[in-house]
Every structure is written in structure tokens, then in C-alpha cells.
Design a protein that fits this description.
single chain; 179 residues; alpha+beta; five-stranded mixed beta sheet
Length: 179
């Protein structure tokens, strides 16, 4: 984590109360974590730190866009992202991060590196299925979409209600009602 020093918040010298930290996350940030799912990124992260006498409350807010590839067409597009996360930092005898909302730092620590929390916040804000907006509204003209349509089963979008039902199924349906 030495390379991400700008994400280290030194809370010892801060007065009690609220403090705002802002970060601009770009592609080089994800390169440090060797995460190559994004082509480019422009995400603004705001951290509101509320320092109290015995603990720290951090509120993370991320918003912006990530340039990703569509899962269907492999066309790149800008996926808007927005996410928030709260973290409480308490002080104890030893480091403990087993709870995802509470972090325990050893007494005597003077800074907290938030890079890992920002990384997880942004990565988890991306939908599991990334679909190009042009695919959803039908405006994307792509060779891959044409090929998928060509190879789709014939009559895939037909109306099932108007299809004639095999009479053997009607006999089986009577078994459900005969009791």
C-alpha cells in the first residue's frame, strides 16, 4: 500500500468534528490492484470523516462513470456508477476487520489507508450484467447483434397462448384435478 499514500488519512492531528476528503479515481488506481475489467474510469469519491472522542465514522460516496465492455456485444460504453458505504473505526488491542462495517485499529495508530475500501466500493457498484444502452433501446448497430439474431431459434418470440397444445398434456392435467 506504499504506492497509494494519498489515500492515507492521518486522523491524529484532526480536531473533533466533520472533515471532508475528496479523491478522483482513474484507471491507474485500478492498475495498482491489477484489476483490468475497466477500460477507463472517472469516479469521484467523497469521504466524510466524523471524528469523535473514542471512534471515527466514515461515510464513503462514489459517483461517476466506468468505461466497460458490454457482456453481449463487447462494445465499450460508459457505465454510470453510484454507491455509498459507512464504516466505523474503533480502537482496541489488536487489528480486526472481520466485520465489514466496523474496523478495529490498535491503539497508537495515527492513520487509516482507505484505498482498499474505495476499490471495493467502486467495483461493487458495477452491475453484474453490463448491457450497452444501445442494446436495450435497439439503437446499437453491431455485427455481433446481427449474428446473434441470425443464430437465434426461429419463432423464438412467438405467442405461446395461440399455439395448439398436444392433447396428451390435457390428459396429464386431469391428474392434477382428480383427487
Amino acid at each position: 500500500m506504499k504506492a497509494l499514500k494519498e489515500f492515507a488519512i492521518q486522523f491524529v492531528g484532526l480536531k473533533e468534528g466533520k472533515h471532508l476528503f475528496e479523491y478522483k479515481i482513474n484507471k491507474s488506481f485500478f492498475d495498482f490492484f491489477e484489476y483490468e475489467e475497466f477500460n477507463d474510469s472517472n469516479v469521484n469519491v467523497r469521504i466524510l470523516l466524523n471524528k469523535k472522542e473514542t471512534l471515527l465514522e466514515l461515510n464513503f460516496n462514489a459517483s461517476g462513470y466506468l468505461n466497460v465492455n458490454c457482456d453481449l456485444t463487447n462494445e465499450s460504453f460508459d457505465q454510470t456508477v453510484s454507491n455509498q458505504f459507512d464504516l466505523v473505526v474503533k480502537f482496541g488491542d489488536e487489528f480486526n476487520n472481520e466485520n465489514e462495517e466496523i474496523l478495529i485499529l490498535p491503539r497508537g495508530e495515527y492513520e487509516l489507508n482507505v484505498a482498499q475500501y474505495i476499490y471495493e466500493l467502486v467495483v461493487l457498484s458495477v452491475p453484474s450484467k453490463r448491457i450497452h444502452p444501445g442494446v436495450k433501446d435497439g439503437t446499437l448497430d453491431s455485427d455481433i447483434l446481427k449474428k446473434l439474431e441470425e443464430l437465434s431459434p426461429k419463432g423464438f418470440n412467438r405467442d405461446i397462448e395461440n399455439d395448439e397444445i398436444d392433447p396428451r398434456w390435457n390428459t396429464l392435467k386431469k391428474l392434477l384435478t382428480d383427487k
